[in-house]
């Protein structure tokens, strides 16, 4: 189970105007702006749930995922993921989670994908038998057989994202965080990724938190949505709760954003 209670996270960002004179001034007197990424965020997600975590750019989605992953430490509040405090029990915690950032890679750029998988096997201390079984299953389900011997830099975006998802699941995590997993993918690749995520949830009861701006991903994969805006949870419900008539999912979400002024 995942539980966040009254979590706050702020960032201090340096600001200055353009120009050489302003750059010199900033050496001696730097101005800062405090950004409240998360402001008293609380929610609970149960085992096996697939939850869509939505909101506009800068709403706090990625900050939430990074805190749940143990990458960031909150300023205040409590976080428990499967009984672990992510940022305190890092080693035990990462054995139970898989993370895919659509704009970040965990594959080594210049070596064949299979070499990256072998390195991840050692990092997570995966047994030979479990690794072989996971690799065979993921290779078949994600159609990776023609990709494993190619360097990551030579793969298309869709091919690389399939390899990224496989890499995050080699150690069979119980929880999967997906941050924009279908960004930039073509229609065929999107359908393949969505189908795989659904199958992973149904077969292994994997808990999935999905952040995305592609509302078709949300509609296809999740039954519950959390709406975050300006660092606060604004709604916790289902798509059926917010749908109006025969409007498309994109029109529905756009209207929801207007309602909450985000």
Offer a few descriptive terms.
262 residues, alpha/beta, six-stranded mixed beta sheet, 9 strands
Account of the protein in words:
The protein is α/β, with parallel strands linked by helices. It has a single domain (46-260), classed as P-loop containing nucleotide triphosphate hydrolases (Rossmann fold, 3-Layer(aba) Sandwich), CATH 3.40.50.300. It has helices spanning 20-28, 61-69, 90-94, 113-123, 128-141, 157-169, 187-204, 215-221, 239-242, 249-260, and strands at residues 2-15, 31-45, 50-54, 76-81, 97-101, 175-179, 207-211, 224-229, 232-237. The chain has a six-stranded mixed sheet with strand order 5-6-7-3-8-9, sandwiched between helices. A three-stranded antiparallel sheet has the order 2-1-4, covered by helices on one side. The protein starts with a strand and ends with a helix.
Characterize the largest beta sheet: strand count, sense, and whether it forms a barrel: 6 strands, mixed
Write the CATH fold name.
Answer: Rossmann fold
Helix content: 25-40%
| N/C terminus separation | 29 Å
- Averaged pLDDT, please? 88
**What number of structural domains do the residues give?**
1
Q: Indicate the CATH architecture.
A: 3-Layer(aba) Sandwich
Secondary-structure content class: alpha/beta
Write the element-wise H/E pattern from the N-terminal end onward.
EHEEHEHEHHHEHEHEEHH
Quick one: overall form? globular
For CATH, the homologous superfamily is named as: P-loop containing nucleotide triphosphate hydrolases
Using the CA coordinates, give the radius of gyration.
20 Å
Instruction: Give the low-confidence spans.
Output: none
Q: Name the beta content range.
A: 25-35%
